[in-house]
Specification:
Blueprint: H1 2-45, H2 50-76, H3 78-105, H4 110-126, H5 163-166, H6 170-221, H7 231-252, H8 255-281, H9 291-301, H10 306-319
Helix pairs in contact: 1-2, 1-3, 1-7, 2-6, 3-4, 3-8, 6-7, 6-8, 6-10
Length: 331
């Protein structure tokens, strides 16, 4: 339990650190870029001589520095890193509370300790603390749900057990299968589609920012050159201004954080699907979670009452593939 509490503090501190990276790098790069654009503009309106050469060199060097910093910032996506650690902090707090509850109501067994350890390691794998070697790929070929839980294992019976099928019935099983179908098609599917769109936007802006500052560096280097005319000044100033706008939209708008948010939301529904399917695939009902409690847990996770949950399953079964209502009312 102490190890989990320590994880909470670690993830919280790293989250604050990486959120600061985002704001500080954004401010620094935009300041450098706009300063370089200003110098290029002044150089273009000044008479040729040593002062103009100094302005051109300074502007070019600043653009090159901004390009390098942008490449690094776009590679690590600080806003996405911070969102990963926010999720890890929340999940570690949840696990810590679960362990406290388990200790309060019962004597933990070796199986309980092993299960808690696996959950901690799964969170560590899903939201790694180090950057080098273990950082999650920020521009994957496709968006996949975040998985922060270990694989289900057949073990001892869970929860409160009663007679009469441990709270399960054929009708409830059918309802749960319909809920899985709704979550997979509407909720998880929608967040994955949104994640794909956000990822594409992020990829375009991540390439556009360094490209524009690189073009601006070339333009500022040729400001005042007779062979280039006014085009060098236009590139040196306009490309720098556009680069600042793109950088602000990408990192000020925290597009990387939005991608991670969609991934984690899809992961939430994937976890619910696996929990339901794991119980349904267990042929011995006495080894399942208690049906009544499990149904209540599913309803709470979806922000619905029990009657609303049953109505959702009934409507999905009646309308089939044309059913478009989301399972969750929370997000």
């Amino acid at each position: 339990m102490d190890a989990v509490a320590d994880r909470v503090e670690m993830h919280k501190n790293i989250c604050d650190q990486r959120a600061n990276w985002n704001s500080l790098l954004l401010t620094s790069i935009n300041t450098i870029t706009l300063s370089a654009a200003t110098m290029a503009g002044i150089a273009a309106t000044s008479a040729l001589g040593s002062p103009v050469l100094a302005l051109k060199i300074s502007s070019t060097l600043m653009y090159l520095a901004a390009t390098g910093m942008l490449i690094i910032m776009n590679k690590i996506q600080p806003s996405q890193l911070a969102e990963e650690q926010r999720n890890a902090t929340r999940l570690c707090k949840l696990l810590h509370n679960q362990i406290q509850t388990m200790i309060a109501i019962d004597n933990p067994t070796a199986h309980d300790v092993e299960e808690a350890l696996e959950k901690v390691l799964a969170i560590d794998k899903a939201f790694p603390l180090p950057l080098l070697g273990k950082m999650i790929e920020k521009f994957p070929s496709s968006v996949e749900p975040t998985v922060w839980w270990p694989k289900h294992k057949r073990g001892q019976a869970k929860g409160i057990q009663r007679s009469n099928g441990n709270g399960w019935s054929e009708k409830m099983e059918e309802e749960m299968r319909e809920i899985v179908s709704v979550l997979n098609k509407n909720d998880k599917g929608d967040y994955l589609r949104l994640g794909e769109k956000a990822l594409k936007i992020n990829k375009v802006m991540a390439m556009a920012g360094p490209f524009l500052t690189g073009i601006a560096a070339v333009g500022s280097a040729f400001v005042g050159s007779p062979s280039c005319g006014s085009w060098a000044a236009v590139l040196g100033v306009a490309a720098g201004a556009f680069a600042s706008i793109v950088n602000t939209l990408e990192h000020g708008g925290q597009v990387g954080m939005v991608v991670e948010l969609y991934r984690s939301n899809a992961g939430f529904f994937k976890q619910m699907e696996e929990d339901i399917e794991f119980n349904l695939n267990e042929t011995d009902v006495d080894r399942r979670e208690n049906g009544e409690l499990f149904e209540m847990k599913v309803a709470l996770n979806l922000g619905r009452s029990l009657s609303e949950l049953r109505d959702l399953a009934t409507s999905s079964k009646r309308e089939g593939k044309e059913f478009e209502e989301f399972g969750s009312k929370l997000f």
